[in-house]
Amino acid sequence: MKARVHVMLKNGVLDPQGEAVRHALGSLGFDGVEKVRQGKVIELELAETDEAQARDTVTAMCEKLLANTVIESYSVELV
Amino acid sequence: MKARVHVMLKNGVLDPQGEAVRHALGSLGFDGVEKVRQGKVIELELAETDEAQARDTVTAMCEKLLANTVIESYSVELV
């Protein structure tokens, strides 16, 4: 089973990387870019075949390793 | 209009970051993780309201700045 995890900085947390991208896009002539946030996406291939079990496992992975839950939020999607 | 861009390393390109995550998950006791690939997700807020136009603009941004198309593939999603 494949899972995809999105990890984004929480709203209100400064995102200098996103800000740098926004600035660079402006310099390249792309106008009308109001906001940019950059995050991580992690694709996992799991041996687990049960959907509920897989979701629980991936959520535990996020809490323990993949996301810093103080400043980041995550979402789990099974594909 | 909001757009979300996924940038992943192309298949066949080594992903040491993903490999490190896989290894760390194993060390934490998560068995059955067969493969991990890590990429970037970039969320953009655009002033543009026309969907086709927004997609074209974001594709141009990917080609020029957001993705290194030699080793990375990207996908654009409007939300």
From TrEMBL, chains A, B:
**Disulfide bond in keyword set:** no
Is Nucleotide-binding set as a keyword in this record? yes
The top of its lineage is: Bacteria, Pseudomonadati, Pseudomonadota, Alphaproteobacteria, Rhodobacterales
Q: What does the record give as EC number?
A: 6.3.5.3
Report the family membership. Answer: Belongs to the PurS family.
Quick one: which pathway? Purine metabolism; IMP biosynthesis via de novo pathway; 5-amino-1-(5-phospho-D-ribosyl)imidazole from N(2)-formyl-N(1)-(5-phospho-D-ribosyl)glycinamide: step 1/2
Quick one: where is this thing mainly located?
A: cytoplasm
Instruction: Identify this protein by name.
Output: Phosphoribosylformylglycinamidine synthase subunit PurS
InterPro entries, per the entry: PurS (IPR003850), PurS-like_sf (IPR036604)
Q: What does this protein do?
A: Part of the phosphoribosylformylglycinamidine synthase complex involved in the purines biosynthetic pathway. Catalyzes the ATP-dependent conversion of formylglycinamide ribonucleotide (FGAR) and glutamine to yield formylglycinamidine ribonucleotide (FGAM) and glutamate. The FGAM synthase complex is composed of three subunits. PurQ produces an ammonia molecule by converting glutamine to glutamate. PurL transfers the ammonia molecule to FGAR to form FGAM in an ATP-dependent manner.
